[in-house]
Amino acid sequence: MFDWISGFIDAVGAFGIGVLMFLENVFPPIPSELIMPLGGFNAAAGREHLVWVIVAGSLGSLAGALFWYWIGRRLGTHRLKRLAARHGRWLTILPEDLDRSNDWFTRHGGSAVLIGRLIPTVRTFISVPAGVARMPMASFLAFSAVGTVSWTALLAMAGYLLQAQYGLVAGWLDPVSTVVVAGIVGLYLWRVATYGRRKRRKAAGG
């Protein structure tokens, strides 16, 4: 995984960072915790400018956030709950999960979007309740941009500062990245397998 991401960024440059960050937000098997530090490595090596790495990563991430915001706004609560009821096993969510996320967003509003953009996995889906609640686009983009730019800049700077240890980092990050991706896939399969049990527990009030 590490070698593939590194090769893709080397071949495509900052645009490739934006594409990967968009995909990471739409479906998260390629974590930003790998993409942005590698962009920082490239910047330290002189192959990219650090500012462009951060800009590309942030724009790609924001595009992914807007995708989910549009899904939530377009479908609305009732259609999303029907979708969850019909295909919940493969989406690994229950209609009640949507109610809980909507309630949490209602209580915290913009701060939920800002903080959610800093949390792995949560950043992918926090845009949905924002869209469902029809949060003003300008406010959504403002809160998302603060969280997104902070996160991507932090990761890119980490990669930039660690460039001198590139060989050491690459040696352990490749197997770690493979484990992370395998863990994400494993968690998804576990949620699919236990969907019926969770649904019965919810129905029983537990």
From TrEMBL:
<protein>
    <submittedName>
        <fullName>Membrane protein DedA, SNARE-associated domain</fullName>
    </submittedName>
</protein>
<feature type="transmembrane region" description="Helical">
    <location>
        <begin position="168"/>
        <end position="190"/>
    </location>
</feature>
<keyword id="KW-1003">Cell membrane</keyword>
<keyword id="KW-0812">Transmembrane</keyword>
<keyword id="KW-0472">Membrane</keyword>
<feature type="transmembrane region" description="Helical">
    <location>
        <begin position="50"/>
        <end position="71"/>
    </location>
</feature>
<dbReference type="GO" id="GO:0005886">
    <property type="term" value="C:plasma membrane"/>
</dbReference>
<feature type="domain" description="VTT">
    <location>
        <begin position="30"/>
        <end position="160"/>
    </location>
</feature>
<dbReference type="Pfam" id="PF09335">
    <property type="entry name" value="VTT_dom"/>
</dbReference>
<feature type="transmembrane region" description="Helical">
    <location>
        <begin position="7"/>
        <end position="30"/>
    </location>
</feature>
<keyword id="KW-1133">Transmembrane helix</keyword>
<dbReference type="InterPro" id="IPR032816">
    <property type="entry name" value="VTT_dom"/>
</dbReference>
<dbReference type="InterPro" id="IPR051311">
    <property type="entry name" value="DedA_domain"/>
</dbReference>
<feature type="transmembrane region" description="Helical">
    <location>
        <begin position="140"/>
        <end position="162"/>
    </location>
</feature>
